[in-house]
Structure formats: structure tokens, C-alpha cells
From TrEMBL:
InterPro entries the UniProt entry points to: DUF34/NIF3_sf, N-reg_PII/ATP_PRibTrfase_C
Signal peptide residues on this chain, from the entry's feature table: none
Domain of life from the UniProt record: Bacteria
Protein name: Cytochrome C biogenesis protein
Amino acid sequence: MNFSYVKFEVLLPEEYIVPLRDQLNKNRVLTVGEYDHVVSYTETKGYWRPLESSDPYSGEKNKVAFGLECKMEFKSPYKRIEEIRNIIKSIHPYEEPVINVVPLIT
């Protein structure tokens, strides 16, 4: 099955949503029809444990941490996945950002 579009889901701290949104929009990623800056986000809770060799943005090595973050979601063309992943990684503060790319049937 071929897919023309995907949905990105990115977990990140709330203070990074606007800078990421602005950079994605500058690269014309967030345009849908006659609208731009088309993105949504929800607050979410999560657990993680930085391992010994990590350089954590938040939390302490070898201790399970809990915190609030946001899930940012937007639609993009399939052919731009790698470009978008690079934009996200250039702004995202986490050492290992969670970036889910989900094929869309439209």
C-alpha cells in the first residue's frame, strides 16, 4: 500500500512547541490548503529512566523519573519525512527524542 501523507507525533517539553512550530512552518511543513501553522498538541505524562551512559535533559541517571510533556501532532507529505526529522532533531532538547511517524490513509 502506498501512502502520500503521514502524521508526526513528537513528545517534547511545552516550551519547545512554538520554536518547533515556527521552524516547521518556515519550511512550509504545516500548510494544509489555505492555512498554515496547522498543528495540535496535548499534555501527557510519562516515565523514563536515564541509563548510566546518558546525558539526560531531565531526571537523574539510573532513577525512574516522571513528568509532564506534550505530544505535538501534524500531517505532512510522506516524501518529506527525513527533512522533518532533521528539523525536529535540530530543535528538540532530548538526547533521544520520541518521533513517531504514522502512515495516513486519506
